[in-house]
Amino acid sequence: MNEGWNLEKVGHVAILSINRPKFMNALNTTMVEELDDILTKVEEDKEIRVLVITGAGEKSFIAGADIDQLSTMSPKDAKYLIDVGHKVFSKLEQLRIPTIAAINGYTLGGGLELALCNDIRICSQNAKFGLPEIKLGVIPGWGGPGRLTRTIGAGRAKNMVYRGIFINAQQALEYGLVTEVFNSIEELRDGALKIAEEIAQKAPITMEIDKHIINDVAINNNCINPSRDALALAYCFTTEDTKEGVKAFVEKRKPKFEGK
């Protein structure tokens, strides 16, 4: 496995791993730029129905931004890194397919900010979460405070951000930051693939619509929208997948969705 991002496909599931274990899988500008290109490829590959993101090794998912790079960064460089990061993280958040963050070990700073852009977050028992930028005199610049607030509430987010503290896997589960905790990293990776394969069997077009509606509520605060829902459901009934789903239900068999 080469250092950097590694993308592999297992059926309709794509698994994206960050492989910089010597640097705790920390992100630098180049890696954020490369992620932009990878997400474009994933978006354009209609065979991919679910994306799983994880970190190589056992100690870290992504331990934040590369401190060595930050130590030599000019204000201009810092602004560019924040701008490109926001662009890429928003792209991940709005990807047409469901995304799963399989979180192993330290998930700090930019790592937590990236994890928050995923639709589903699961973790191993050794996971640690935090936005410790306050200890360096900087802010979490890739949307972390806002997304964390949206996910766990303002009080808990402020406690983590103001103090720069870490929370463990069980606290993350209690807060709603993750939906499931696995005993080991091996079980986490097996579990992530199992969840992804389950989702990949569902109707892709319907899944894309569901994601759009949920994001519309979570991100844009657009709650109940009867016109949107009516048009979305009407569109479903123009697809072969909806016809197949209804027919399979009547025939008491498992549907086979083709994304058409």
TrEMBL record:
Keywords (A to Z) from UniProt: Isomerase, Lyase
Parts of the chain that traverse the membrane: none
EC number: 4.2.1.17
Enzyme class, broadest EC rank: lyase
Keyword Isomerase attached: yes
CDD domains (UniProt xref): crotonase-like
One GO term of the biological process aspect: fatty acid beta-oxidation
Entry GO MF terms: enoyl-CoA hydratase activity; isomerase activity
A Pfam family that the UniProt record links to this protein: ECH_1
PANTHER family cross-referenced by the UniProt entry: ENOYL-COA HYDRATASE, MITOCHONDRIAL, ENOYL-COA HYDRATASE-RELATED
Family: Belongs to the enoyl-CoA hydratase/isomerase family.
Name assigned to this protein: Enoyl-CoA hydratase-isomerase
Gene assigned in the entry: paaF
